[in-house]
Amino acid sequence: MKQTFSVKTLFLQRVADHFRQLKALCKTAIDWIVWLYVILPVLVIGGYNYWKWWRDEWDLSAMMFPIETIIFAVLFLLMAAGSLRFFIERADQLFLRQYHHGYRQLKKLGVFYSATVHFIILVVVFAILAPLFLVQLEKNIAFLVALFFLCWSGSLLIPAIRQLLQFRFRGWRYYIMNTIFMGSSAAVYWGMIHLWDAAKTNQLLLMAGCLLIIFTLTWFVLVVRMHKTSVFLDELANEITLKYRFMSTMLMSAGMVGAPQFQQVKTAKSNKRPWFFRKSGTIFSKRTPEKVIIELHMKYLLRNKNRRMLMLQLTGTCLFALLILPSVLKWIVWFIAIIMFLHLNNSYVVEMKRNTFLRAYDWEREKLALYTRKSVFWTNFPCMTVIGIVAGAVLFPWWGIVAVGSATFGISYLLQPLLQK
Predict the structure, then answer these.
(1) What residues form the membrane-spanning segments (predicted)?
(2) Model pTM greater than 0.85?
(3) pLDDT tens digits, residue range 368-403?
(4) Computed from CA positions of residues 180, 181, 184, 189, in that sequence, does the dihedral angle turn out positive or negative?
């Protein structure tokens, strides 16, 4: 009992330290400007629309994509983003690992902590989505509750299996196995939901049976995960990544609001080559200073995983907002999306200008500004195309795709010099 109590005390101390770090980070990152210009407007607009979701029914036939499919896809992504935290530290290798019972107790507490955190997050998410399910999609409460427990169990099952795959496979083999696993999980998830939705009789019995199977599988995988041995270094590396995931996300996104870009320190790897433009060949056959800048900007953006992923995540967030928000807010999101992409890509240009290669040449200031202005426009072109097409399709009939798409490029081109200054 004494050893168990000491392990619990150690675990609670580490959890408390983690939340203190998060609190300090939030105090540093969220000042009164963010509260006044970002958080409060989002709360007011979101609260008003949440109230309308309970009162007014949408015309779902006018939407470009089925809102039901979008919501289920978001819930699956939320499950896939789940994690298991064990709060393992480097010193545990010297002391705590010698006591297998205490080390296993630490993992059990980590599973309980992860399950509690996921439960709270899903309660908030499903409270927000409740009017969409109950009023707009006309689902019953039993379906909503069953979907909640399915997502809760999946948020523990998916990261546990993913960690087991990390211990078993390395490099490209892991990516292949993880892709197969995630595709199979998505297929089972969609099949189960459609089976519940199509059941006219005995729906409660069917949902209870499926949840019992999922809970049993989750319990079995978690037991296997907790009893996994000889993987301490892998567990420690995974724990460090999860520990600083929230902090890294905030710092990597700081460039969107004008803060200096955060550079993640990584261990140098031999024979490491980028996925795009691996041989560093030229893109344009005709070599001019303007095309050289555009080419450097494209490589600077696409060769870095964090930069291209941030662009893709921002595009996905804007598209999701365009699909689910009312028409008035769609216009606001469309305009804000243009500003955000220009601001983000301009911050990348500022970084690129500090590069030693560019500073080695005597560039004329006016011409360099003109070249980088065009490079921002063309590197934003794919994202602006997608946002313009989707915004035009959800706001107008077919001709809106051409009109809003053209307006997107025009506004982006006109605002670029102002934001660059």
Answers:
(1) 29-51, 63-88, 109-135, 141-160, 172-192, 204-224, 309-325, 331-350, 371-390
(2) no
(3) 677 777 778 888 888 888 888 888 888 877 677 888
(4) negative
